[in-house]
Amino acid sequence: MIANPDRNYMSPEEYLEWEEKQPLKHEYMNGEIIAMTGGTIAHNEIAINLTMALKNHLRGKGCKVLMADSKLEVSESGPFHYPDVMVTCNEQDKLAKTVINFPCLIAEVLSPGTEGFDRGQKFQNYRQISTLREYLLVSANQKMVECFRLNEKGLWELSTYGEGDEIELASVEFRIPIDLIYEEVVFSEN
To answer: Nuclease: present as a keyword of the record (predicted)?
Structure first.
């Protein structure tokens, strides 16, 4: 989730140096620092379930599966984001220590406070990444996953999955039942 900070403008270099020393994570866009806040238990469980399934599938295949504490650099000048889950199979990312540059798959777990941003500006930012092939938006309120997949014509196509469906992730050659992503998740009543 994103909390609106006091507007502090920095260069990308200043941000990277400053953020390394902060107790909380901050995203960076257009010179502005955006403080990250915690999510719900359902949000966390969904991200963990997806991460574990991807990690088990990709074990030994030369890919990294990363969660919310891993920073993504869209370009040298930013923006910098913390996706809920991302996968990179790119050689250049294998030795990365602080920033990932070449993901093939990014997943965001939606919350009321971030859904518009995740669907809009953040997806627009992510589409600048040449290696990105799939972008998942995972609901934290119901069993629903939207997968935006880059087709051979360079267009993003949407596939929506619901109760009982199996999700195909072509970027990592993986199929996963939606029920596994939502295993043990209790949806809030509001």
So the answer is: yes
Tokens representing 59 are: 């074990």
Residues 146 and 158: their CA atoms lie apart, in Å, by 7
Q: For 48, phi and psi rounded to 5 degrees?
A: -65, -45
Q: Cα separation of 34 and 44, whole Å?
A: 20
| R_g of the chain, CA atoms, integer Å | 16
Q: How far apart are CA 122 and CA 145, in angstroms?
A: 17
- Whole-angstrom distance, CA of residue 175 vs CA of residue 162: 14
Q: In angstroms, rounded to a whole number, what is the distance separating the alpha carbons of residues 161 and 27?
A: 29
Query: Which residue from 146, 143, 147, 149 is spatially nearest to 180, judged by alpha carbons?
Result: 143
Full-model pTM: 0.88
- Domain 38-181: CATH superfamily is tt1808, chain A (3.90.1570.10)
The domain locations on the chain are 38-181
Q: What mean pLDDT comes out for the span 25-39?
A: 76
Mean of the pLDDT values across residues 119-142? 95
Tokens of 142: 């119901």
